[in-house]
Amino acid sequence: MKLLAKSLLTAVVLAVALTTAGAVAVAQETDDQAKIDIYKRFVENRVNNQRAAYQAARDYLQKYTKDKDQYTDYLTKWVAAYESDERKANLPVLINEKKFDEAYKTGARILADEPDYLRAQIDLGYAGYIAASAKNETHNAAALGYATKAIQLIEAGKVPSEWAPFKGKDDTLAYLNYAVGYLNLKTDPNKAIDYLLKAAQYESEIKKTPSTYYFLAVAYESGPYNTLSAAYKKDFADKPETPASKAALDKLNVLMDRIIDSYARAIAAAGTDPKTEQSRKEWTTQLSTYYKFRNNNSEAGMPEFIAAALQKPLPPKP
Predict the structure, then answer these.
(1) Contact, 74 vs 63, CB < 8 A?
(2) How many Å apart are CA 115 and CA 120, to the nearest integer?
(3) 199 near 212, Cβ under 8 Å?
């Protein structure tokens, strides 16, 4: 593994373990031919076949577990570094294969050893969205923690070992903010709005993704709009208009306009893709309800409003 050479072979300086002379050194110190052969197998494979070297090192440590010398010390560290690098390499594979339970266990082990290993925090943060969108919400809380920490570290200037599978810093931040927004939709829609708005500010595919704006509409509806609507009905419904009721209605109308804008953007971003046809119908129905309420029960101008939606700046949270 490429990381192993950096993380261990430069950190542990044992000439006996880094050259074939190591095998000779063992031979000079023991007449146990099996011991010599296992160690020699490790030395011969440690550069070009690290999987075989790893197995040899494990065999050596298991067979000579009571030895406490420079050889067992080196091999113990080598094995630990190999396993650490293997966990890091396996994490994205487990996520791609949707083995989320195993992925989060592996990630937790990686971060227990290296709490600020940013690549794992990014992967586990976005994996929460992948899992939740597939109806697996088991790891939502953990994913939120990883994603928000990754955002903080990146914004503070920390750089991961590599940006892939994302295209760079802004793309990574867009997807992480999108993930945090989605994961907060049910539990804290107010917070979801903040993250979704932020996700849409970056120049990335997220800015062009219909679901970004659909989730934003849902967050506005289920969060501040429903809260203010319930308060308005309780305090002012079926009562004469007052300055207070008018102010409350104005606030509701602003939120309604945000919902209208979000649905229009979702429909516009979906375009004419046959895969989004059912979603577009549902979004259009929702949009129509709010649009007509704000336009004297008329849909006049709604198609033009949708067509121009993405050309306008995304309005801020009220």
Answers:
(1) no
(2) 10
(3) yes
